[in-house]
Amino acid sequence: MDKEFYNLKNADPEYLEGVLLKIQRSFNIQFDNEGLKNVRTFGSLCDLIVSKINQGHADHCTTQHSFYQLRNTISAIIRVDKCSITPHTRLSKIFPRENRLQVIAEIEQELGFETKLLQPKQWVIALFSITLLVSFIGLFYNWQIAAAGILASLIGLKLAGKFGKEIHLRTVGDLANKICRDSRHAGIVNKNEVEQKVREIFENDARLAPIFLARR
Q1: N- or C-end of the chain: fewer Cβ atoms within 10 A?
Q2: Are residues 122 and 161 in contact, defined by beta-carbon separation less than 8 angstroms?
């Protein structure tokens, strides 16, 4: 892609190239010179991305396509040779527990959507669910204690979901299959979400953060 087409207002073409590549990986799209030639504002860039996504949805998602997207993202985040990642590679091997939350969060940011790969231990969910049920029953006897139990159970379930580290799939291929399946049921592209994601990508770049990305 020729840098002359990176003509967003106030943005240095030298800095834009890396950001545009990151956008391509995040949304699994491919820019071309013809499309970028007409991009002159942040808003027109978002419009181009949405059109590319919609065009991509016209073709049926395949597990193979999802696998390549996932493999490239994992390779970029954990810095391993992408050829070493196969559909049979175990997720627990490439996502060790000590940094699992952080790494998967970074991968989801790159992909542009949640994989919903992690979950709490089953006994934790069962414990808080039982406590919640008992608390509801307790409302008929002591509403203050029961209300406290309900609140504690809800907070516990929320925190368990946020910090759960258990991977409920076995292999990269399983995750690619899930991503493909979820993509088929994703529905219409949310333009506001696309714009927010692109804005975050720009703002996370220290060299482009000061730029005011006005939509006009």
Answers
A1: C
A2: no
